[in-house]
Amino acid sequence: xxxxxxxxxxxxxxxxxxxxxxxxxxxENLLKGNLFFNAVxxxxxxxxxxxxxxxxxxGIQKSEYIIPILTENSINTQWINQEIGxxxxxxxxxxxxxxxxxxxxxxxxxxxxxxxxxxxSGKTERSKNIFFKKQAIFLIKDLETKVDKPAINYNLQNxxxxxxxxxxxxxxxxxxxxxxxxxxxxxxxFVEKEYCYNIKDIDFNTENKKLKFTKVGIRKxxxxxxxxxxxxxxxxxxxxxxxxYKDDKLVKKQKLVYVNMALWEL
Length: 266
Prior knowledge:
Largest sheet: 8 strands, antiparallel, barrel
Strand content: 35-45%
Number of helices: 5
Protein backbone atom coordinates (compact mmCIF):
# COMPACT_ATOMS: atom_id res chain seq x y z
CA UNK A 1 0.00 0.00 0.00
CA UNK A 2 2.80 2.39 0.93
CA UNK A 3 4.62 1.76 -2.35
CA UNK A 4 1.48 2.45 -4.37
CA UNK A 5 0.93 5.77 -2.61
CA UNK A 6 4.57 6.82 -3.10
CA UNK A 7 4.21 6.31 -6.86
CA UNK A 8 1.22 8.66 -6.88
CA UNK A 9 2.96 11.46 -5.00
CA UNK A 10 3.30 14.79 -6.79
CA UNK A 11 6.69 16.51 -6.80
CA UNK A 12 7.00 20.01 -5.35
CA UNK A 13 10.05 21.97 -6.51
CA UNK A 14 11.37 24.44 -3.92
CA UNK A 15 13.10 27.48 -5.42
CA UNK A 16 15.26 29.46 -3.00
CA UNK A 17 18.38 31.48 -2.31
CA UNK A 18 21.17 29.84 -0.32
CA UNK A 19 20.74 32.35 2.52
CA UNK A 20 17.20 31.01 3.05
CA UNK A 21 18.28 27.39 3.51
CA UNK A 22 16.75 27.39 7.02
CA UNK A 23 13.33 28.06 5.50
CA UNK A 24 13.88 25.34 2.89
CA UNK A 25 14.58 22.92 5.73
CA UNK A 26 11.31 23.93 7.43
CA UNK A 27 9.27 23.35 4.27
CA GLU A 28 11.09 20.13 3.41
CA ASN A 29 10.48 18.74 6.92
CA LEU A 30 6.77 19.59 6.67
CA LEU A 31 6.57 17.60 3.43
CA LYS A 32 8.43 14.57 4.83
CA GLY A 33 5.99 11.72 5.25
CA ASN A 34 3.22 13.60 3.40
CA LEU A 35 0.98 11.12 1.60
CA PHE A 36 0.57 13.28 -1.50
CA PHE A 37 3.68 15.42 -2.04
CA ASN A 38 7.41 14.97 -2.31
CA ALA A 39 9.87 17.88 -1.89
CA VAL A 40 12.38 18.44 -4.68
CA UNK A 41 15.43 20.33 -3.41
CA UNK A 42 18.20 20.37 -5.98
CA UNK A 43 20.97 20.82 -3.43
CA UNK A 44 19.88 17.42 -2.04
CA UNK A 45 19.84 15.73 -5.47
CA UNK A 46 23.49 15.73 -6.55
CA UNK A 47 24.17 13.55 -9.55
CA UNK A 48 27.61 13.11 -11.12
CA UNK A 49 28.31 14.60 -14.56
CA UNK A 50 25.21 16.79 -14.54
CA UNK A 51 25.40 20.55 -14.43
CA UNK A 52 23.38 22.42 -11.81
CA UNK A 53 21.31 24.09 -14.56
CA UNK A 54 20.40 20.70 -16.01
CA UNK A 55 19.38 19.39 -12.58
CA UNK A 56 17.17 22.43 -12.00
CA UNK A 57 15.47 22.04 -15.38
CA UNK A 58 14.77 18.35 -14.79
CA GLY A 59 13.53 19.08 -11.27
CA ILE A 60 11.10 21.70 -12.55
CA GLN A 61 9.97 19.55 -15.47
CA LYS A 62 8.98 16.62 -13.26
CA SER A 63 7.27 18.76 -10.60
CA GLU A 64 3.58 19.55 -10.36
CA TYR A 65 4.10 22.67 -8.24
CA ILE A 66 6.88 25.23 -7.92
CA ILE A 67 7.21 26.99 -4.56
CA PRO A 68 9.59 29.96 -4.65
CA ILE A 69 10.65 31.28 -1.24
CA LEU A 70 10.86 35.03 -1.84
CA THR A 71 12.61 37.10 0.82
CA GLU A 72 14.94 40.06 1.09
CA ASN A 73 17.71 37.50 0.49
CA SER A 74 16.33 36.25 -2.81
CA ILE A 75 14.47 39.17 -4.42
CA ASN A 76 17.46 40.22 -6.49
CA THR A 77 18.89 36.75 -7.04
CA GLN A 78 19.16 36.07 -10.76
CA TRP A 79 19.07 32.30 -10.29
CA ILE A 80 15.68 32.19 -8.54
CA ASN A 81 14.21 34.56 -11.14
CA GLN A 82 15.41 32.25 -13.90
CA GLU A 83 13.83 29.25 -12.17
CA ILE A 84 10.48 31.07 -11.94
CA GLY A 85 10.74 32.11 -15.60
CA UNK A 86 11.52 28.56 -16.72
CA UNK A 87 8.63 27.18 -14.64
CA UNK A 88 6.29 29.78 -16.19
CA UNK A 89 7.43 28.76 -19.68
CA UNK A 90 6.66 25.13 -18.82
CA UNK A 91 3.19 26.15 -17.60
CA UNK A 92 3.84 24.96 -14.06
CA UNK A 93 1.70 25.95 -11.08
CA UNK A 94 3.75 28.55 -9.17
CA UNK A 95 2.78 29.32 -5.58
CA UNK A 96 5.17 31.55 -3.67
CA UNK A 97 5.72 32.07 0.04
CA UNK A 98 6.72 35.72 0.37
CA UNK A 99 8.20 37.97 3.00
CA UNK A 100 5.60 40.70 3.43
CA UNK A 101 8.16 43.51 3.47
CA UNK A 102 9.21 42.92 -0.15
CA UNK A 103 5.81 42.50 -1.86
CA UNK A 104 5.82 46.04 -3.29
CA UNK A 105 9.33 45.48 -4.69
CA UNK A 106 8.41 42.37 -6.67
CA UNK A 107 8.73 42.50 -10.46
CA UNK A 108 8.40 40.01 -13.27
CA UNK A 109 6.12 36.98 -13.19
CA UNK A 110 5.32 37.39 -9.48
CA UNK A 111 4.30 40.90 -8.43
CA UNK A 112 1.99 42.75 -6.02
CA UNK A 113 -0.94 42.61 -8.46
CA UNK A 114 -1.02 38.81 -8.20
CA UNK A 115 -3.01 36.97 -5.57
CA UNK A 116 -0.32 36.32 -2.94
CA UNK A 117 -2.03 34.66 0.06
CA UNK A 118 1.06 33.15 1.68
CA UNK A 119 2.92 36.04 3.27
CA UNK A 120 4.97 36.12 6.45
CA SER A 121 6.76 38.77 8.49
CA GLY A 122 8.81 39.08 11.66
CA LYS A 123 11.36 41.28 13.35
CA THR A 124 13.93 38.60 14.16
CA GLU A 125 15.10 35.60 12.14
CA ARG A 126 13.45 33.30 14.67
CA SER A 127 10.08 35.04 14.42
CA LYS A 128 10.31 35.10 10.61
CA ASN A 129 10.85 31.34 10.61
CA ILE A 130 7.90 30.79 12.96
CA PHE A 131 5.53 32.79 10.73
CA PHE A 132 7.04 31.24 7.60
CA LYS A 133 6.23 27.78 8.98
CA LYS A 134 2.60 28.77 9.61
CA GLN A 135 2.19 29.94 6.01
CA ALA A 136 3.91 26.80 4.71
CA ILE A 137 1.43 24.66 6.67
CA PHE A 138 -1.51 26.63 5.20
CA LEU A 139 -0.09 26.20 1.70
CA ILE A 140 0.38 22.43 2.05
CA LYS A 141 -3.14 21.99 3.42
CA ASP A 142 -4.54 24.02 0.51
CA LEU A 143 -2.62 21.85 -1.95
CA GLU A 144 -3.97 18.69 -0.31
CA THR A 145 -7.54 19.83 -1.02
CA LYS A 146 -6.72 19.83 -4.75
CA VAL A 147 -5.43 16.26 -4.79
CA ASP A 148 -7.52 13.38 -6.04
CA LYS A 149 -6.84 11.16 -3.06
CA PRO A 150 -6.52 7.46 -3.88
CA ALA A 151 -8.88 5.12 -2.13
CA ILE A 152 -7.08 3.15 0.60
CA ASN A 153 -8.35 -0.27 1.56
CA TYR A 154 -7.48 -0.52 5.23
CA ASN A 155 -7.01 -3.84 6.96
CA LEU A 156 -8.30 -3.78 10.56
CA GLN A 157 -5.86 -6.51 11.53
CA ASN A 158 -3.07 -3.92 11.13
CA UNK A 159 -4.66 -1.85 13.94
CA UNK A 160 -5.63 -4.79 16.18
CA UNK A 161 -2.66 -7.13 16.17
CA UNK A 162 -2.81 -10.09 18.54
CA UNK A 163 -5.41 -10.66 21.25
CA UNK A 164 -7.55 -7.77 22.55
CA UNK A 165 -10.14 -7.12 25.22
CA UNK A 166 -13.15 -4.91 24.56
CA UNK A 167 -14.96 -3.36 27.53
CA UNK A 168 -18.32 -1.59 27.20
CA UNK A 169 -19.46 1.28 29.42
CA UNK A 170 -22.64 3.32 29.64
CA UNK A 171 -22.36 6.97 28.62
CA UNK A 172 -22.24 7.71 32.37
CA UNK A 173 -19.15 5.51 32.75
CA UNK A 174 -20.71 2.43 34.38
CA UNK A 175 -19.18 -0.85 33.22
CA UNK A 176 -21.52 -3.09 31.19
CA UNK A 177 -19.32 -6.03 30.27
CA UNK A 178 -16.32 -7.20 28.27
CA UNK A 179 -15.13 -9.78 25.76
CA UNK A 180 -11.83 -11.01 24.38
CA UNK A 181 -11.45 -11.07 20.61
CA UNK A 182 -9.02 -11.31 17.73
CA UNK A 183 -9.10 -9.92 14.19
CA UNK A 184 -8.19 -12.62 11.67
CA UNK A 185 -7.92 -12.90 7.89
CA UNK A 186 -7.86 -9.13 7.51
CA UNK A 187 -11.29 -8.01 8.65
CA UNK A 188 -12.99 -10.90 10.46
CA UNK A 189 -13.87 -10.45 14.15
CA PHE A 190 -13.55 -13.62 16.25
CA VAL A 191 -14.70 -13.99 19.87
CA GLU A 192 -12.62 -16.89 21.13
CA LYS A 193 -12.79 -19.22 18.10
CA GLU A 194 -16.16 -18.13 16.78
CA TYR A 195 -16.44 -15.85 13.75
CA CYS A 196 -18.98 -13.27 14.93
CA TYR A 197 -18.67 -10.09 12.87
CA ASN A 198 -17.51 -8.90 9.51
CA ILE A 199 -15.74 -5.52 9.48
CA LYS A 200 -16.42 -2.96 6.75
CA ASP A 201 -16.31 0.80 6.01
CA ILE A 202 -12.88 1.22 7.62
CA ASP A 203 -11.55 4.76 7.66
CA PHE A 204 -8.45 6.15 9.37
CA ASN A 205 -7.40 9.78 9.74
CA THR A 206 -3.61 9.93 10.09
CA GLU A 207 -3.62 13.48 11.49
CA ASN A 208 -5.89 13.01 14.52
CA LYS A 209 -5.55 9.19 14.80
CA LYS A 210 -9.30 8.66 14.42
CA LEU A 211 -10.40 5.18 13.39
CA LYS A 212 -13.91 4.34 12.18
CA PHE A 213 -15.37 1.02 11.14
CA THR A 214 -18.63 -0.95 11.13
CA LYS A 215 -19.17 -4.39 12.70
CA VAL A 216 -21.84 -6.46 10.97
CA GLY A 217 -23.28 -9.50 12.76
CA ILE A 218 -22.99 -12.66 10.65
CA ARG A 219 -24.40 -15.29 13.04
CA LYS A 220 -27.91 -16.61 12.59
CA UNK A 221 -30.55 -14.11 13.80
CA UNK A 222 -27.86 -11.47 14.49
CA UNK A 223 -28.87 -8.52 12.31
CA UNK A 224 -27.05 -5.90 14.36
CA UNK A 225 -24.84 -3.24 12.82
CA UNK A 226 -22.40 -1.49 15.16
CA UNK A 227 -20.62 1.69 14.08
CA UNK A 228 -17.39 2.41 15.95
CA UNK A 229 -15.97 5.95 16.18
CA UNK A 230 -12.61 5.65 17.94
CA UNK A 231 -9.31 7.35 18.64
CA UNK A 232 -5.98 5.54 18.96
CA UNK A 233 -4.64 6.53 22.39
CA UNK A 234 -1.49 4.39 22.18
CA UNK A 235 -0.20 1.29 20.39
CA UNK A 236 -2.16 -0.90 22.82
CA UNK A 237 -5.22 1.20 23.67
CA UNK A 238 -8.10 2.42 21.50
CA UNK A 239 -11.24 4.06 22.86
CA UNK A 240 -14.36 5.87 21.74
CA UNK A 241 -18.05 5.20 21.10
CA UNK A 242 -20.24 2.61 19.44
CA UNK A 243 -23.72 3.07 17.99
CA UNK A 244 -25.75 -0.11 17.64
CA TYR A 245 -28.43 -0.31 14.96
CA LYS A 246 -31.09 -2.92 14.33
CA ASP A 247 -33.45 -2.75 11.37
CA ASP A 248 -31.90 0.65 10.53
CA LYS A 249 -32.91 2.05 13.93
CA LEU A 250 -30.47 3.28 16.58
CA VAL A 251 -30.87 0.94 19.56
CA LYS A 252 -28.16 2.21 21.90
CA LYS A 253 -24.92 4.13 22.20
CA GLN A 254 -22.11 3.19 24.55
CA LYS A 255 -18.48 3.91 25.40
CA LEU A 256 -15.78 1.45 24.35
CA VAL A 257 -12.24 0.75 25.52
CA TYR A 258 -10.09 -1.66 23.50
CA VAL A 259 -6.90 -2.88 25.20
CA ASN A 260 -4.24 -5.18 23.77
CA MET A 261 -4.02 -8.27 25.98
CA ALA A 262 -0.22 -8.15 25.83
CA LEU A 263 -0.43 -5.13 28.17
CA TRP A 264 -2.09 -7.29 30.82
CA GLU A 265 0.86 -9.65 30.74
CA LEU A 266 3.45 -6.95 31.54
